[in-house]
Amino acid sequence: MKTVIAPPNPAAEYGRGVFRFSLATGSPGELGLLEALGNAFAPAADATLAWVKAGTGESLQLLRDRQVDMAMVHAPAQLKQALAEGWITGKTLIGANEFYLVGPRHDPAGIAHATSAADAFQRILDTGVPFVSRGDQSGTHQKEMQFWSALGQTPQAECYLVTHDFMTASLKVADSRSAYFMIDSSTWIMEQVHAPSLTLLYRGDATLINCYHAVIAPAGATAGHDTAARFVDFVASPAGQHIIREYGQDRYAQSLYNDALFARQYD
């Protein structure tokens, strides 16, 4: 007897239309960008967007298991493999932010003086100071592991604090432990109020640019495929790109995301 996997419960729904589709993602949902895009798309499309809260690794697994219709993710290596294996169709570049390295204001590892992101990670490793890792196979965790892998080791266990949690929750842990943390710029802009003992110490390396793609299941694989495909088209359209490019300007005097035109330089 075949086991039927119950679809995941959505964290939120946007729109009240007939055509329902589900989308798995992490920070774009947490920070409200998905709500802005969903509410702009839903009325004309007679759609309902169900957001399933999940990091990149989990989002792609949900898509592979056909538990969601699409995902917004940032994991180039995983997407390349998924395309080769055929369980996603295409990938649409939708925008980018960047990763920051934040840490205690007295900066015991001296990463504010690092010459590159790799140098910053090396200084953290050499100094033996606390570092918070999400440890959840999210896009952020995968990017972090690229740096440790290049160095051949991770920090000692007593200094390596793994949360298995989302970005804002992990930021709060870093603040409570006076630890270093790699965080996406969008979350830092919005949530730094929750980390008063931390400050932005390193940014600007091209290796820290963080590109987001939208991916969907093959045609016919999920019930909401066609509406999900229309949503991807909307997000990539001038109207959708305007929302991404301007998101956050009214509250923070700066955008939380760059658009696909910017991201294309780094994709």
Task: Provide a concise account of the structure shown.
The protein is of the alpha/beta class. It contains twelve helices and eleven strands. It folds into two domains: 12-95 and 209-263, Periplasmic binding protein-like II (D-Maltodextrin-Binding Protein, domain 2), CATH 3.40.190; 97-208, D-Maltodextrin-Binding Protein, domain 2, CATH 3.40.190.10.
Description of the molecule:
By secondary structure, this protein is α/β, with parallel strands linked by helices. It has two domains: 12-95 and 209-263, Periplasmic binding protein-like II (D-Maltodextrin-Binding Protein, domain 2); 97-208, Periplasmic binding protein-like II (D-Maltodextrin-Binding Protein, domain 2). It has twelve helices and eleven strands. The chain has helices spanning 27-30, 33-45, 56-64, 76-85, 117-127, 139-151, 167-176, 185-191, 225-236, 238-246, 249-252, 260-263, and strands at 12-14, 19-25, 47-53, 70-73, 89-104, 131-133, 160-162, 180-184, 198-202, 209-216, 258-259. Strands 1, 2, 3, 4, 5, 6, 7, 8, 9, 10 and 11 form an eleven-stranded mixed beta sheet that branches. α5 (117-127) crosses α6 (139-151). The longest helix has 13 residues, at 33-45. The chain is globular and about 55 Å long. 46% of the residues are buried. The model has no long low-confidence stretch (mean pLDDT 95).
